[in-house]
Structures are given as C-alpha cells and as structure tokens.
C-alpha cells in the first residue's frame, strides 16, 4: 500500500515541478530498523505561497485536505495534512530554507514500482530526528547510525552546530553521544 502511494506521490510532485524529499518513518524504514508508521512525511522545497499547487497535487492523488481554512492553517504551521480512503495520512511540509534546499538536492532517488522516489539522505534524516528529539526519534537515529556507518558525520555536525546557534539548543551534543554509543 505504501509503495503504491509513494510511487503515485512522486509522479504527481514531479509532474507539478514541486521539489520534495520523503522524510520521517518512511525514510527510517529505508535506512534503519523497521517500525510501524501510518503516514508519509514529505518536505517540499517550496514556500507557503505555493499552497495552491500543493493542494492541487493532493486532489490529483485522490486525497482530501484535512483542514478547513487551508491558507491560514498552512501559513501558521507550514504543514498541509491530507488523508485518503486508504486511511493513510500524508503531511506536506513547506520549507524553503537553505538547509532544506541542500537536503533536497542531496536526496537519493529510490526505485519504487518503476518510479524514482526522492528520499532524504540518511544524514538529513539523522538531523531531522535529532531536532525532533522524541524518544522514538532518538531510537531511529541509533538504528540509522548503526546501519549506515559511512555517513558524513562532518556534514551532520556542521548543520547541528548551526541549528544549535540559531535555536540555543544542544543538538550537536546529542549527536556526539549517539555517535559514541553506536560506533563502540
């Protein structure tokens, strides 16, 4: 079910010239340990001013937008939630930051049912998950780091340092602890 939806999603976004990458649980399934996930998280390389084009893509997929005042909701949250008859949810995340643009450029095309689907690179999933910081996210990071030992740790550290500075956080420290744990 997920494979068919990922394939269709990639086709619709590519046809609409909307840059994207699959993140979240679907990417963890690709790079880490299998776990239950009931949605697809998609980071879009467009800002909220493209909400009409994304809404059109949602409808083309046969999905429905799950909020009433779309423009106001997206302006506030930068997310457009969509649902379909399958019961699977897709969260379209609007982002046009320098980091997200670079992450989308670094995305890896994975063949799913004959369609190239862009998944965030494992390094970028680690960055996203550390910033999210929930217990499940940290476990996802551990599994990704164990299975992908050749990741570019300098790239991860650079971006986490930048986010630490911007958000007065300690993401880099969390990464360094996990790196020690998983490489021991």
Task: Describe it.
- The strands form 2 sheets. This protein has a 5-stranded mixed beta sheet, sandwiched between helices.
- The chain has 184 residues and is α+β, with helices and mostly antiparallel strands.
- The model has no long low-confidence stretch (mean pLDDT 94).
- The chain folds into 2 domains: 120 residues, Beta Polymerase, domain 2 (2-Layer Sandwich); 64 residues.
- The protein is built from 9 helices and 7 strands; from the N terminus they run αβαβαβαββαββαααα.
- Helix content is 55%, strand content 18%.
Descriptive labels:
184 residues; alpha+beta; 5-stranded mixed sheet; 7 strands; two-stranded antiparallel sheet; 9 helices; Beta Polymerase, domain 2; 2 domains; 18% strand
Categorize the overall geometry: globular
Low-confidence spans: none
Give the strand order of the largest sheet, numbering strands 1, 2, ... along the chain: 1-2-5-4-3
Please report the number of helical segments: 9
Describe the biggest sheet? 5 strands, mixed
Order of helices and strands: HEHEHEHEEHEEHHHH
**Helix content bin:** 40-55%
Radius of gyration: 16 Å
For the record, the count of structural domains works out to: 2
Q: Look at the helices and sheets and give the structural class.
A: alpha+beta
Q: Beta-strand percentage?
A: 15-25%
The CATH topology assignment of the largest domain is Beta Polymerase, domain 2
- Give average pLDDT, whole number: 94
User: What's the β-strand tally?
Assistant: 7
CATH class of the largest domain: Alpha Beta
> Quaternary status of these chains?
single chain
Note the gap between the termini: 37 Å
CATH architecture of the largest domain: 2-Layer Sandwich
